[in-house]
Design goal:
Elements lengths: L12 E6 L1 H8 L12 E10 L2 E13 L2 E3 L9 E3 L6 E10 L4 E10 L2 E10 L4 E8 L3 E6 L5 E4 L4 E2 L4 H6 L8 E7 L6 E13 L4 E3 L5 E3 L5 E9 L8 E6 L10 E3 L9 E3 L2 E6 L2 E10 L1
Parallel strand pairs: 15-22
Antiparallel strand pairs: 1-12, 1-13, 2-3, 2-22, 3-6, 4-5, 6-7, 7-8, 8-9, 9-10, 10-11, 13-14, 14-17, 15-16, 17-18, 18-21, 19-20, 21-22
Length: 292
């Protein structure tokens, strides 16, 4: 199993450096347009390497109430979730090969739109490691492969890589969204910058969607998407990572969003759904999305 399969969920830790609304929104979450996922959302992807099916990825996102919360792997380590506008969020990711072996598992906890803690373990023929991290507002603490906890001082606007693609969903992508990220590799402390921008509009469907009432259908091939590129700002630049999100048309005529359980309110919906993630020769293609 190639290590490229889990390259998407890499060791890199993201810090927002510049770029208008994204930095402002991360440091003051009430300025974000709003949560882009339902009370509970499940995304299932097929993983293709060189256009050959090599595995699957399941991402489960759950909204959490205000109060003491913890990563499932470490239930005794509690963190304060106190965002009055957004509550908290727990995101878990599980990648498997074709033999159903787990090759990557991660958990990430958010307070509003800010990172609190995360954990990741990778086990492939090419790479085996664990990474545990937490954030106290000014410092990022991490432990690599169970070693001694290290720390890095960071500025307001820090974002853990495990939540990066989810946070991007919360912005007005339809308004030519752009940003700049700085990445920190906790294995060596090296930094690099990424330019993030909406680059094109297209169409992509064919995935199954199930709403909160249990109704299911197949998304039309004409489902509109926006491509968001993540590109190194310095050589070697290499190929951009590109994530394709469904476009949200406020008129409801051509956009796509998925409602969760109607009993949970009108804001219980999923939008800007990532239908494909492409990194070099690896693609994660959405096969099913469920909103509850």
């Amino acid at each position: 199993m190639s290590k490229r399969i889990v390259a998407l969920i890499s060791l890199l830790i993201v810090v927002i450096l510049a770029s208008g609304v994204f930095l402002t929104g991360c440091s003051q979450d009430q300025k974000l347009p709003g949560i882009a996922w339902a009370e509970e959302e499940t995304l299932t992807y097929s993983i293709f390497t060189d256009n050959v099916l090599t595995g699957s990825l399941v991402i489960v996102t759950r909204r959490l109430p205000v109060g003491q919360q913890a990563l499932p792997k470490f239930p005794d380590e509690k963190y304060d979730v106190n965002s009055s506008s957004s509550g908290g969020t727990l995101i878990t990711k599980t990648a498997k090969d074709l033999s159903e072996n787990i090759i990557m598992y991660s958990e990430a906890l958010m307070n509003g739109f800010k990172p609190v803690a995360s954990y990741k373990e990778v086990s492939t023929s090419d790479a085996q490691y664990t990474l545990k991290s937490r954030y106290d507002g000014t410092r990022y603490f991490y432990s690599y492969n169970g070693g001694e906890e290290e720390k890095v001082r960071i500025k307001t606007g820090f974002m853990d890589n495990e939540i990066m693609y989810s946070i991007v969903r919360c912005y007005e992508l339809e308004s030519n969204y752009t940003s700049t990220f700085t990445l920190i590799d906790p294995t060596n402390g090296n930094k690099e910058s990424l330019s993030v921008a909406v680059t094109a509009e297209g169409t992509q469907g064919g995935f199954e969607y199930v709403n909160g009432s249990g109704e299911s259908a197949i998304a039309a091939t004409s489902t509109r998407t926006l491509a968001v590129s993540f590109t190194r700002t310095k050589a070697p630049v290499g190929k951009s990572l590109v994530v394709y999100y469904t476009l949200e048309d406020k008129t409801g005529a051509t956009g796509f969003y998925l409602t969760g359980d109607p009993a949970k309110g009108v804001t219980n919906r999923s939008s800007h759904i990532p239908v494909m993630i492409q990194e070099n020769n690896v693609k994660y293609i959405l096969s099913k999305v469920v909103a509850n």
